[in-house]
Write a structure and sequence with these properties.
This protein is an alpha+beta fold and about 120 residues long. It is built from seven helices and four strands; from the N terminus they run βαβααββαααα. It has one domain. A hairpin with a 2-residue loop joins β3 and β4.
Length: about 120
Amino acid sequence: MKVYFNNSCKICKAEIDLYKKEEINEINWIDITNNKIAEKETLKDSKQLLRRLHVKDGEKVIEGAAAFLLLWKKMPKYKFLYNFFKLPVIFNIFSFAYEILAYFLYLKNKKQLNLTEKK
């Protein structure tokens, strides 16, 4: 499983760093910053990758709140989050809240797109 995240976002990096400490061998962490290979592997452009967390499991690319569910499901320490947030009503609230937070993080980090497009 590959997890595509924005390492240049301080909030994103802090959260992913917590997950990396779990040292789950089947998870490959991919920084999307200026990463054309990530764009090819996910079939997403840099704006789409920057906008949400993405997980590639096999050939399937999952994004947003559903990507977190898949990630937490694979991590014993965080499986309780999976079990809670997968509940239909809770997932809908989580997904909505994630989209709002992700949008503001996207706006905050959008400048990195401008830097890469000028190169």
